Fold this sequence. Notes:
The protein has about 170 residues and is of the alpha/beta class. The chain has a single domain (about 1-120), classed as Collagenase (Catalytic Domain). The chain has helices spanning about 1-15, 30-45, 70-75, 115-120, 120-135; strands at about 20-25, 50-55, 60, 65-70, 85-90, 95, 100-105, 105, 110-115. Strand 8 and strand 9 (about 110-115) form a beta hairpin. The chain is globular and about 55 Å long. One zinc ion binds near residues 142, 144, 162 and 165.
Amino acid sequence: MRLLILLLISIHLKGQSIGVLTYGEVPNRTVLITALQKEIKRVYGKEIIEIGVVEIPRRAYYKPRYRYIADMLVNDAARYKGYSSILAITAKDISTDSPNWGICGLAGDYSCVVSMYRTKTIPLFVDVAIHEIGHTIGYNHCRDVSCFMQEYDGTLRVHKKFCDNHKGAK
Ligand SMILES: [Zn+2]
Ligand SMILES: [Zn+2]
């Protein structure tokens, strides 16, 4: 009985938490995860659960540009079921079609991927992660330049907050 209760509690916690999957080696990973954890807690009121480090899927490699196809990574990360959302992180360059654009992050309706390759700094990386997680919970783009959901306009910014339209829905 006690075991069953513990199991039910852990399933419940998992369903409330963001699963974080690491593709390949990510420099300063511990610092990065701590920064992510803090901001995800502040913004979404959620904990993260580390799924671990896995090899980045070779089939997602796009050789002509030395990039990984983000759409395939988003699909791959969705294999890990039962979390509130999945955030996959990588230091590799990622891209989407077409043509093959290099991007910072991409989201589906459950999982998303964010790359350190273009964001470079931890605050920008964390900001993109908050944006992509927003997509996984159904947030659309926004014209407010101070909102996390601002549509990318060629300039990476740290936003710090949601606008009034995006606030509240978790
Ligand atoms: Zn977006
Ligand atoms: Zn907004």
